[in-house]
Amino acid sequence: MAGISSKAAGKLENLKKYNGIELQHQEFSDLSGLEVYEAFYRNLDPQTGRWWQIDPKWEASIDPAFVNEDETIVEGLESLSPYTSMNNDPIKLSDPLGDWPDWLDKAGDVLSNTVKGVGQGLLGAVNAFTSDNIGGAGLVDGSNLTQAFQIGQQIGHIGAFITGAVEDGVAGVGEFITGGAATPIAVPLAIHGTATSAIALKNIVLSNKNQQTGSGEGRGKNNRKPDPAATGDHTVSNDRGSTTFKRNDKNPTGFDEVKRVDTKGKAHGKVPTPHVHEPKKPVRPARADEIPNTNLEKNKPLK
Questions:
Q1: What is the DSSP string of 105-161?
Q2: What is the average pLDDT score of the chain?
Q3: Which terminus in the chain has less CB density within 10 A, N or C?
Q4: Is 231 exposed, middle or buried (0-12, 13-18, 19+ CB in 10 A)?
Q5: Where are the domains of the chain?
Q6: CA 191 to chain centre
Q7: Strand 50-51 versus strand 43-45 pairing type
């Protein structure tokens, strides 16, 4: 483009070109160059559309000893050339690091999270529906579990409330049609339906109340954001606790929350404050060494 070409700004050339990868161009004193794109993991030859080095994730698919940074092994790539670029589809895909088309990563993450979410939702729905139908026994406390599980429980409670009302209706219709002859069946059915609907309605109300109070009084106020000046792993603290962040360039914020210590607010999942939140783990009481100094200024390290 003219605005960033050799015709602009004193013949400064924009070397960040395809996929934002730097082109090795005229880097030698005689103005010659390798004429390849230098990505983080390997070099891309624009003449052939192939990488000069083997895909590191392709190696992972055939060598169990080679793992990715997230300690997982990529499988199913044996049929692809280890030198292929963008899966032979540079229009739809990009590969700014030179290891794997990022669109496939995102699509895989979305699919994986969707499957997990649906599974968690089904578990929550089955648990709530079954519990409401047997007098409330066995109901799992979903406050420490995923949001999908909690939504599933709400759906299960609503389903139990509806089926309980249907049981009442069926019992009444049976009594009316048979002129009272259906009493041995209708009465127990009506009792079960009424009890199920009452338990389900109570759980629906309690769940909504807990979500409203929890987000306003406890968890919402205790949410801390990464330090905007931080470039690596760090901990942000204030008078309500601390949050530890780990660097992750794939996260829009640049960081993943790996640990949160709440020193103020209500109990979470029956665990009193101070308590600790960690991904994919139940809430637990905080150890003495995990509780930050309450006089600590926000985002300032202890002296």
A1: HHHHHHHHHHHHHHHHHHHHHHHHHHHHHTTTTT---GGGS-HHHHHHHHHHHHHHH
A2: 76
A3: C
A4: exposed
A5: 1-100, 108-222, 234-290
A6: 42
A7: antiparallel
